[in-house]
Amino acid sequence: MNRLERIKGCLLGGAVGDALGAPVEFLEWNAIRATFGAQGIRDFTPAYGRVGAVTDDTQMMLFTAEGLLRAYVRGSSRGICHVPSVIHHALLRWLMTQDYPPATHVSLNGWLVNERALWSRRAPGNTCINALKASKHFGFLAENNSKGCGAVMRVAPCAFFGNAFDYAADSGRLTHGHLTGYLAAGLFADILQRIADRQDSLEHAITESLAEHGDKPGLEETRTLLERVLFYYYEGYRPTPERIDEFGAGWIAEEALAIGVWCALTATSFEQGVISAVNHSGDSDSTGLIAGHLLGIQYGPEAIPARWLEKLELRGVIEKVAEDIERVPRDYSGYGGEFDQVIEAEYPGD
Ligand SMILES: [Mg+2]
């Protein structure tokens, strides 16, 4: 599989998992079963007034990608760039689409923010909204102690740039002040990067990522849960709605990551993996998105059921972002380098 297929599979896969989970995000498993039967929700069902609607998770993931692309343009043209600050500016553009005023001046240039389909509220997380509203300048760190999953759910695009762990953790910190909240995001992006760059299996990527980062102060909670997931996997212990509920609901960072990883590790197909990731009492759209990113980056867009891709909201936007990411040289490190004039026109470096 080539790099573009991995990027597209990752971004589209995450969005598809988000859309599958959107109608049941706030439903307990008992209510999901009562509505959709013993197998749970297995297909797109209307949410937010349409079939295939994505949520704030995919919206913020796209703006994170925009920030990374703008940072590339800025770094290439000016030679130096603080990547998390440029991602912050992009996340503040997302805040504008939610109809909340930022405290700092935000440029509404570039193509992404002018996609009207993004200007829609999809149950955005309070932590992200409040932290972004309170930002006093680009790069301002969140003044809260939240470890909600709102950083993990948006950082997948970091996997295709420079040091994914640092970009994801440092940009996660803009909204989530708890170490687990942003370091779990770093670990997720690092796992994805190992799969993209080295064609690692998911299991190997997790093991290597824990070996490199697992002893960092603040990663204890995330490491403990991921080690439990690996143990379950080796024991052949598969996720069911009841077992996922026992494991945790996924509203917090380490649980969302662990549930998504468990469902992706044990998946027999892309479809089966994301279905298992959304059928539980917790944060179904975020765990669906995490499993979808992990499966899509391994198996590419071909593995995603056509009936889901056809109805996926923002599909064209997501594919364009994936193609634009692929234009950035993989050895780009955040400083200087090749200049791409096509990217420059669409991702102003501010
Ligand atoms: Mg959501």
Could you report the average pLDDT, rounded to the nearest whole number? 95
Q: In CATH, what is the class? A: Mainly Alpha
The number of distinct β-strands equals 0
Order of helices and strands: HHHHHHHHHHHHHHHH
What's the structural blueprint in terms of helices and strands?
Elements: H1 3-21, H2 29-36, H3 56-78, H4 83-97, H5 126-133, H6 164-172, H7 179-198, H8 202-213, H9 220-234, H10 241-247, H11 253-265, H12 270-278, H13 284-299, H14 306-311, H15 315-327, H16 341-346
Helix pairs in contact: 1-12, 1-13, 1-15, 3-4, 3-15, 6-7, 7-8, 9-11, 11-12, 11-13, 12-13
Bound molecules: magnesium ion.
Protein model, in words:
By secondary structure, the chain is mainly α. 57% of the residues lie in helices and 0% in strands. The chain has one domain: ADP-ribosylation/Crystallin J1 (ADP-ribosylglycohydrolase fold). It starts with a helix and ends with a helix. Bound molecules: magnesium ion.
Compact description:
The chain is mainly α. The chain has helices spanning 3-21, 29-36, 56-78, 83-97, 126-133, 164-172, 179-198, 202-213, 220-234, 241-247, 253-265, 270-278, 284-299, 306-311, 315-327, 341-346.
Give keywords.
single chain; 350 residues; mainly alpha; ADP-ribosylglycohydrolase fold; binds magnesium ion
